[in-house]
Amino acid sequence: MRNIFKKLKIFTAIIDAFRNEPETIAYPREPLVLPKGHRGNILMLNPEQCSGCGLCVRDCPANALELIKDTRTKFRLDYYPARCAYCGQCVESCRNQAISHANNLADPTSNPDGSVIVLKDTLEKENEKDS
Amino acid sequence: MEKITIPIGPQHPLLKEPLSLLIDIMGEKVTGGTLRLGYVHRGIEKLAQSRNYIQNVPLIERVCGICSQVHTTTYCYAVEKLLGIEIPARAQYIRALMCELERIHSHLLWLGILCKHIGLDTIFMHTWHDREMVLDIMEELSGGRVAHAANKIGGVRFDLDEDHGPMVISIINKLQGQIGKLRDMVMHEPTIKARTEGVAPLSQDDIRKFCVVGPVARASGVDVDFRRDDPLPPYDQLDFSVVTHTAGDAWARTIVRVEEIEVSMKLCAQILQDIPDGPIEVRASRRVPAGQVVVRAEAPRGEVVYYLRSDGSDSPARLKIRTPSLTALSILPKQLSEIQVADIPVVVAGVDLCIACADR
Amino acid sequence: MFIQLLFYGFVFPGLIFQILCAWVFEWLDRKLIARFQRRVGPRWFQPLADWIKLISKENILPKGSNELVLTILPILSFGAVLTAGMYVPVAGFNFFSFEGDLIVILFLLSIPTLAYYLAGIASIGIYSFLGGSRSILQFFSYEVPLLLALSGPAILAGSWSIQNIITSQLSKGPFIIFQPLGFILAVVGLIGKLKRDPLDIPKAKSEVVAGALTEYTGIRLAFWHLAMNVQAVLGIFLLINLYLSWSPMDIPLLSTLAFIIKFLGLVVMLSVISSVFSRLRIDQLADIGWRILVPLALLQLLVVIFMGF
Q1: Are C278 and B340 inside 8 Å of each other by CB?
Q2: Chain B: partners with 3+ C-beta pairs within 8 Å
Q3: Can you tell me the ipTM of this complex?
Q4: Do A14 and C275 touch (CB under 8 A)?
C-alpha cells in the first residue's frame, strides 16, 4: 500500500512545481545577479603597483596578455579579451596584486583579433617627457 | 527483412558530445555496432609539452567539463610528488570537498539525461534544478560554475570563510530533502524500472576482460573504488561506504549512482566537520626536478591515471592521461549486440560516456 | 447566401477560428508543461512567432525524393482537418450537420496519420523511414479502441449525427456518467492519435530524431504543425461534444462559457498526463493495445447495446 503512495510522488512533485515560482528567469527583461567572486574581464586594479615583471604574461595559458618593454620603467601591457579563458591565472601569479577581475559577464565580439585593451602604458608618457 | 544501418552520427539528440556509432538493425533487433572516435580530439597531451607547469593547470581543467576538478587535482598531486613537497591539510580537505561536490553534480546530470531519453522530461528538469543548487555552492566558493579554477601547484586558491561553512551545510541539508524525494520517485516509478531492468547485463568476466572501471563495474559486483584502494591524502582519514550491486544491467547502474550521491553528501558533511585550520598554500618552485610519477584518482566515472615525466626544465617532457570513458566505450559494441532498438538510448545514456575525456 | 458561406468557410467555424484555436491550444500546452517543470514558459504570441519564422526559412528537400508528393502531403492533411472542422459543433453553434457526419469526421481525421506515414516513406532518409513505419504500427494499436469508444455515445443516442447526440445529452445528462470506461478509452486513443507523450513513439527525439518530419523545413513544416494542432483541437472538441456536452440552461452565453471551461479542463488533463508518464516501447504498446484496450472497448460496447445505458 505504501508503494502506491510512493508511485504517486511524481504527481505531488508537479503540483508543487506549479504552485511555486519558476526557477528560471527571463534574462534580458529581468536582472541577473552575479556572485562576488565571479571571474569577469581583466582590469588593472592598482596601476601604480604594476612593475612590468611579466609573470602574468608568462603564466597565461591562452597568450591573452602581451608586454612590450622598452626599459625597466617604459612598457605597455596589452590585453586581448577575445583570447582570454577567464581562468584567473594572471591574477594568481601577480606578486603585487595589481591586476584583477571585474564582476561582469564578458561581452561577445565579432572582431576577435582587433579588440585590444591597454592595461598600463608608460611608453608614450616617458617619450613626451623626454622631448 | 533486410539489414539497415542507423547512424547515431556525430550530431544526434541522444549524444552530449560528438561520437559516431553505426548500428546495424534488423527489424526491431540490434545485431551490432561500430564506433568511431576522435571528433573532439584537441591534442592536449601534445599541448601540455609546450607550456610550463603553471600554464598547464587551466589547460588540464578543460579536458572535460563535468569532471574538471578531479583532473586538476590529480595533475597537481603528480607535480607536487615530483617536487617533493606536501601541501597543508586544510588544502587537502578543500580539494576533497570540491571533488565530492563534483561527483554529486555529475551523477545528478546523468540521472536527468537518462530520464530525458526515456521520455520523462519532468524528472529531467527537476533533477537539473537540484543540480543548480550544487553549482551555486561551487560558484560561491570558487567563482565559476563549471570551470572552477580551484587548484594550483602548492595548494588551493581560495579559502573557506566563517560564513561559507554554514552556507554550504544549509544548502546540503536542503538538497538532502530533495534527493530523498528524487530517490523515491526514481526507485518506485514503474516506467523507469520497466524500461531499464534486464537491459544489457554485464558479467564479472566481461568487466575484468575489458578493464571496465567505475560505477559500471561496481554494478556488476566488482568491488573497486580508488578512494579506498589507493587513496590520495585526505581520503585515508575519512570513512565512507562503497556501493555495489550484483545484477549488472541498466537498473543496477541506476541504483549504484543514486546511492553514491547519498554517500558523497555524507562525505561532504564529514569534511566540513573535520577540516583543520592552517594555511592553504605552500610555495612551489617553477623548475621541477627530473623523474617520473604515476598518480590515480577516482573520477565520477571511474579511475583516472596520470603519468608525468619531467626532465628538469619548467615544461613537462611527457604527460599521459588515461580516462575511464575509454574503457566504457570499448565495451559498448558488445552491449549493443543483444538489445532491441528502443533500448539504444537506455544503453548509450546509461553507460555515462564523456567523449571529451576519451578523446582529450 | 454566398457571403454567408464564405463567412462560415473562412471565419467561423472555418479557417481563422480553427487556426486561432490551434495556436491557443499550443500555447496553453507548452505553458502548462513548462510550469510543471519549474520553467517560465513561452509568451502568448510564441506559436504565431514560430509560424512566421518557419515560413521565412528556405525550402529544401533531400536529393532524389519526389517533390510533388512531399509538397502535397501537408496541404492534404491541412485541408482534411479543416473540412472535418466544418462539421464539428462548437458550443452549440452548428451549421452543416447531417445524419452520419460523425463517421465522415472520423474518416477525415485519419487522413493526417496516413499522410504522416507516406511522408516518412517518401522522404528518403533512415530516420524518416523508421518514424513512418512506427507510426503505422501505432495506428493499428490505438485506432480500434478509439473508434469503438467513440461509437458508444452514438449507439446510446440512437443517431450518427453529432447534433442529435448533443440534443440527447441535454435531456439525459452528460454521457460520461453512463460510459466512464468509454471516456477513458477515448482519451487514451486521442493521446495516441496526437502522438503526445506516453505514446510519442514515432517522433521519439532520442531514437529517431524527429520521426517522419525530419527532412521537412520551411513553409511545408509550418503547415504540418498547423495540421497537427488543428487535429488536436478537433479531437478535444469531439470529446467534449460526445461525452461532456451538458449545460444547466440554454442561454448561448452560458453554454459558450461552459464549453470554454470544459476545453481548458481537457487541456490541463492532457498536459498532466504528458508530464507524468514516460514513453512506452512499441512492443509494449501493441501488447497493451490488443490485450487490454480492445477487450475493454468491446465490453463497453456490449454494455451499451444490451443494457441501454
Answers
A1: no
A2: A, C
A3: 0.84
A4: yes
How near does any CA of chain C get to the CA of B344, in Å?
Answer: 7
| Segment B222-243, tens digit of pLDDT | 888 888 888 888 888 888 888 8
Identity of the residue in B116, B191, B344 whose CB atom sits nearest the CB atom of C207 = B344
Distances (CA, A) of C95 to C154, C245, C260, C274: 20, 17, 20, 34
For B181, which residue in chain A has the nearest alpha carbon?
A9
A-chain residue closest to B315, CA distance: A59
Q: Which residues of chain B are within 8 Å of residue C282 when distances are taken between CB atoms?
A: 28, 342
Cα–Cα distance, A63 to A56 (Å, whole number): 10
Residue ranges covered by each domain of chain C = 20-34+43-49+63-307
| CATH 3.40.1000.10 is the classification of domain B41-359 | no
B248-307: pLDDT as tens digits: 888 888 889 989 998 888 888 888 888 888 888 888 888 888 889 999 998 998 889 999
| Three cell numbers written together for B38 | 576522435
Q: Of all helices (H) and strands (E), which one includes residue B7? A: strand B4-8
Distance from CA of B128 to the nearest CA of C (A): 10
Residue A34 touches chain C, beta carbons under 8 Å: no
Q: Is the pTM of this model over 0.90?
A: no
Name the residue facing B54 among A6, A85, A89 (closest C-beta).
Answer: A89
C-alpha cell at A87: 581562468
**Confidence band (pLDDT; 50, 70, 90) for C30?**
very high
Assigned CATH class of A38-130 = alpha beta
Residue A103 carries which DSSP code? Answer: S
Residue with cell 498532466: C272
Q: Taking CA atoms, what residue in C is nearest to A10?
A: C276
Phi and psi, residue B279, nearest 5°: -75, 165
Burial of B113 (0-12, 13-18, 19+ CB in 10 A): buried
Which 3 state secondary structure label does DSSP give B42? coil
Rounded Cα gap, residues A76 and A119, in angstroms: 8
Domain residue ranges in chain B: 41-359
- The C-alpha angle A105, A110, A112, rounded to 5 degrees, equals 85
